[in-house]
Amino acid sequence: MKKQTQKKNSTVSIKLKLLGIILPVVIGIMVLLVGVSYFISRNIITEYSQNLLRSSIDNQANEIEAWLNENLSAFQMAKQAIEQTQPGQEQLQQILDSYYGFNDNYPNGLYIADAEGNMMTASGSAKTEADPRQSLWYRSGMTRWNMGFTGAYTNEEGQAVISASGILKDGSGVIKVISADLTLERISIIVNSFIEMEQAQAFLVSASEGTILAHHDTSLISTRLSESDDGFLRDVGERVAQDDFKMAEIDGNMTAFVEIQGTDFILVSYIPTHVIYADIEHVRTLMILIGLVSVAVLALLIERVVHMVIRPVRELTSVITAMTDGDFTLHVKSAHNDEIGVMSRSLEKFIQSMRMMFASIHVVSHRLNRQADSSNTVSGQMYDASRSQSISMKELNTTVEQLSRSVNEIADNAATLASVAADTREDGRQVGDKMKETVEVSVQGREDMHRLSEAMREIDESVRRLQEEIDRVGKASVEINKITGVIGEIAEQTNLLSLNASIEAARAGEAGKGFAVVAMEIGQLANTSTDAVHNIENLIEEINKLVQNTVRQTQESVSSINDSSALIGDALITFDTIFGNIDTVNALVEQMAEKIGKVDDVAGNVAAISQQQAASSEEILATSETMVQHADQITADSQVVSKGAGELTASAKELFDHVGKFKIEKGAGQR
């Protein structure tokens, strides 16, 4: 009972199990969906942002290239105009003056320097250099015929500029370089004015020198990337130095590079990743909230659905639990048409079948108990009869022994008579007395032989009655064997029902585990019934063997008793003969005085007859002892039969008690 209580206390409901399985799966699916959605959305936004940043920086590069080319074309046209007209000194000064303040991109206009270090500027220009031949623009210009841009540098006025310069052939015969300056501040305005992507930043870098040409922070202009305090700028400088211009995420910024055609300028555009992913982070938070609400709603719906599905299973569980305790008085009602409804109706049919089976077993066990009691009574009677026979045979043995002693005495007296009759006639009177005693003993012996004959007839009747009772025991054993056969068939059918129930429970899966336990218990009960039937059959077989042995020994006893009766009949005839002879001897003794001469012959005959009688009495004594042994054997066999009948009664009672543990409706076990 303690083990069963512990099992009940540790039982977990199917509802909790299903919720424990389904809810983690639903939560996992929701987490997976949110994660996958976030990952896909992040990748999409990343790809979109990269494309947008690439498009933005390409547009910026195109605009910058157009702006630079526009200015460079203006410079080139001015250079070509001078080279074509080959103006004089005054005309050249007029041309330079005309370009001063002509365009905001190059407010100082054009300026020219020759190989002798002379420099010519617009009249309003404040640009001066002590030795222009040492300047970057002059050295760069001396390397090309067409005008091209130099790197960024700081001029003598302290402005960060780049210059467009080239060799001027004005027909003077002196090598000259024409140049114009573009301030980096102006370039920064141009660079940052074409940014299409919101919250993105851009700056222009000289690849050859690693300096910043344009930046929204003007304090960084003309500084080297490798010497910057900003880790992002240093990392950008390393990539520029390695000519690695692939788009990448650098220090939390999505960064794109593009080369400005015709220059060594690198345009760098970047946007912080947290700006890109701000919306997706908001969407992720919203999806998590929606997921939590969905999980809560699904958990509530699943709990209600599971409750509705499990409720009939709980009813089935209570019925099956009652069945395991042996209560088959319950009824299962179900109006459902699903698998649980089919299981409920099948369980109701099973309960009805078990009621009918237990009612039948109850009747059979009750009948078997009555028949076992009857067999026990018959075996007891047979045992009492065998004991009575044994006592009678012992009394017969005592009587035969007394008869043997009497016959021996007669033989001794006859021998004495023969010897004495030859010696003296005077002993005739004593012989007469002895003959009278002999007559009395003979009369007593004849009466004893008659009583022995009557006892033998009574023994024969007792043995016949014993044989009839043994036959009844054999017939009762056959009936019991038939009953055990019926019980065996019922146990086999029960075992088949248990097997079918186990198969159905296995098909039902988790929901059929409780039913499988019931099927197992029923199968064990059927196996126990089968074992009990086998034990009963073995007991009945032993009883049948004992009955057969008893019948055989009884038949042998009947044969021996019949032989003994024949011998006793012969002995009775012999006693009658002896009695007649003794009577004749008595008559002869009375005439002994007259016929003393014939006494010797008569005494010899009497002695011979007495010896034959003594031999017969010894044979009767031996036969009587054999009959006593047979009677003792019959008594022992009867005791064994009685013991077997008692065991049969105990087995029948045990079967009756086992069946009585199961509760069925009142009146179901009565017929």
Strand and helix layout:
Blueprint: H1 2-9, H2 14-85, H3 89-99, E1 110-114, E2 119-120, H4 136-141, E3 148-149, E4 153-154, E5 160-168, E6 176-183, H5 184-193, E7 201-206, E8 211-214, H6 231-241, E9 248-250, E10 253-259, E11 265-272, H7 273-276, H8 278-324, H9 339-423, H10 428-508, H11 513-590, H12 599-660
Antiparallel strand pairs: 1-2, 1-6, 3-5, 4-5, 5-6, 7-8, 7-11, 9-10, 10-11
Keywords:
671 residues; disordered N terminus; 6-stranded antiparallel β-sheet; alpha+beta; 5-stranded antiparallel β-sheet
Write a compact overview of the structure shown.
With about 675 residues, the chain is of the alpha+beta class. The protein has twelve helices and eleven strands.
3D structure, described in words:
The protein has 671 residues and is an alpha+beta fold. 71% of the residues lie in helices and 8% in strands. It contains twelve helices and eleven strands. The strands form two sheets. Strands 1, 2, 3, 4, 5 and 6 form a six-stranded antiparallel beta sheet that branches. A hairpin with a 5-residue loop joins strand 10 and strand 11. Helix 9 packs antiparallel against helix 10, helix 9 runs antiparallel to helix 12 and helix 11 packs antiparallel against helix 12. It is rod-shaped and about 230 Å long. The two termini are 35 Å apart.
Rg, Å, rounded: 70 Å
Mean pLDDT: 75
- The portion of residues assigned to helices is over 70%
- Described by the principal axes of the CA atoms, the overall outline is rod-shaped
Span of the ends, CA to CA:
35 Å
The tally of helices reads 12
Oligomer: single chain
Q: Give me the secondary-structure category.
A: alpha+beta
User: Which percent band covers the strand fraction?
Assistant: 5-15%
Succession of helices and strands:
HHHEEHEEEEHEEHEEEHHHHHH
Quick one: biggest sheet? 6 strands, antiparallel
Write down how many β-strands occur, each being a DSSP E stretch of 2 or more residues. 11
